[in-house]
Amino acid sequence: MPDDAAKARTPAWSGHPSQWLNWKHWLISLVLIAAMIWGWMESEALVGALRSISLPESILGWIALVVLGLIVLNLLVRFVLVRSTGYRVIDGVLQIESGVLSRRTDMLELFRVRDIVEERPLIMRLVGIGNVTLMSSDTSTPRLTLAGVPGSTDLVHVLREEVNRARGRVRVFEGGDVPPA
């Protein structure tokens, strides 16, 4: 019996969203840094402009430092937010844990899932990730999207198996009908 209990608590699947969800932020940051490098290379023209409005020349360095600090802080926050989200399928329940300082765990009973949709736009296909959306009869979470999941196709197969297994345990069939006794 202890082996069955341990097996029941082993996740059928677990994972995190991919950091590729942040690609737009990385791209914008690279453009801003490139603009700062261009500004540094053209600093004579910028210093001349600062003189014309009677600002000290040292302010240019401070502005660049503050902008660079904000860029790094933004990227760090985005990284931590994505990394602090975790998904787990265990015992017929999909658990989504999120939060940095305070944690929140949302649970979706898989027997309530009505449909599973996998979306893999071009950029996501290129990097091997996808979005998996579950439509359910759950009142608090009728539509749940797992964004940027690596190996989303494998996850869809695991979810289908687990949904069918959970429906068998609870004896729920398509349309919510319970089989006759």
Counting helices, strands and paired strands, the structural category is alpha+beta
Question: Spatial order of the strands in the main sheet?
Answer: 1-2-3-4
Shape: elongated
DSSP summary: helix tally: 6
Through-space gap between termini: 29 Å
Total domain modules = 2
Radius of gyration of CA atoms, rounded to a whole number: 25 Å
What do you see in this structure?
There is one protein chain. By secondary structure, this protein is α+β, with helices and mostly antiparallel strands. It has 2 domains: 2-17 and 85-174, PH-domain like, CATH 2.30.29.30; 21-81. The chain has 6 helices and 7 strands. The protein has helices spanning 2-8, 23-41, 43-52, 58-83, 122-127, 152-170; strands at residues 13-15, 86-90, 93-98, 104-109, 113-119, 129-136, 143-150. The strands form 2 sheets. It has a 4-stranded antiparallel beta sheet, with helices on one face. Strands 5-6-7 form a 3-stranded antiparallel beta sheet. A hairpin with a 5-residue loop joins strand 3 (93-98) and strand 4. Helix 2 (23-41) runs antiparallel to helix 4. The longest helix has 26 residues, at 58-83. 13% of the residues are buried. The model has no long low-confidence stretch (mean pLDDT 87).
Write the layout of secondary structure elements.
Elements: H1 2-8, E1 13-15, H2 23-41, H3 43-52, H4 58-83, E2 86-90, E3 93-98, E4 104-109, E5 113-119, H5 122-127, E6 129-136, E7 143-150, H6 152-170
Antiparallel strand pairs: 1-2, 2-3, 3-4, 5-6, 6-7
